[in-house]
Automatic annotation (TrEMBL):
The keyword Signal does not apply. InterPro entries: DUF402 (IPR007295), FomD-like_sf (IPR035930), Ntdp-like (IPR050212), SA1684 (IPR016882). This is Nucleoside triphosphate/diphosphate phosphatase. Has nucleoside phosphatase activity towards nucleoside triphosphates and nucleoside diphosphates. Mg(2+) 1 binds at N87, D103, D107. It comes from Bacillus salitolerans. It catalyses: a ribonucleoside 5'-diphosphate + H2O = a ribonucleoside 5'-phosphate + phosphate + H(+); a ribonucleoside 5'-triphosphate + H2O = a ribonucleoside 5'-diphosphate + phosphate + H(+). It comes from the Bacteria.
Length: 176
């Protein structure tokens, strides 16, 4: 399957556990691509929802995807600081069409002061029943949520000081 290379412009496809498309980001610039990690940047990219509605992102974002962790992280650069939106999800795959993952509903929103809130627990419980998430998936997701929260508290990975700013500089250089 390979992996997307730095400088490539790719789509990101989010699916639900039942295989239905959830959301598509039209264009993200790959800043780093390896078999285990993809870091990308985008700004004002078109997003298409499963019902066909579209919207455009409001601010620059750095996206972090890992092949071994069941979450992905989006750092959004706003005037009052960096906000993070973290999706509990399957690890990514790359199939030359797009970077793809399964969205498992639970999200963590992190504020510039590194406080955070867990979102969509009700949606997770509903979809767990409707789509019959296996117990092993439920266990993996909860374990990875704990791992993600540890990263936030310890300011590791994309939550480390200057991580998002440094990759945003790389993104701006790609735009020249």
């Amino acid at each position: 399957m390979g992996f997307p290379m730095a400088g490539e412009r790719i789509q990101i496809h989010s699916y639900k556990h039942n295989g239905c498309i959830h959301r598509v980001w039209e264009e993200t610039v790959v800043l780093k691509g390896t078999k285990n990690l993809v870091i990308g940047g985008n700004d004002r990219t078109t997003v298409t929802e499963s019902d066909g509605r579209t919207w455009i992102t409001r601010e620059p974002a750095i996206c972090y995807f890992h092949a071994h962790y069941w979450f992905n992280i989006i750092g959004m650069l706003r005037e009052d600081g960096i906000y993070y939106y973290c999706n509990i999800s399957s690890p990514f795959i790359w199939d030359k069409e797009a970077l793809k993952y399964i969205d498992y509903d639970l999200d963590v929103k992190v504020f510039p002061d590194m406080t955070y809130i867990l979102l969509d627990e009700d949606e997770y419980q509903r979809h767990k029943q409707e789509m019959k998430y296996p117990e092993v998936i439920d266990h993996i997701l909860k374990k990875n949520l704990d791992h993600l929260l540890l990263w936030i508290r310890q300011r590791k990975g994309p939550f480390a000081p200057d991580f998002i700013d440094s990759w945003y500089e790389q993104y701006l250089l790609q735009q020249l």
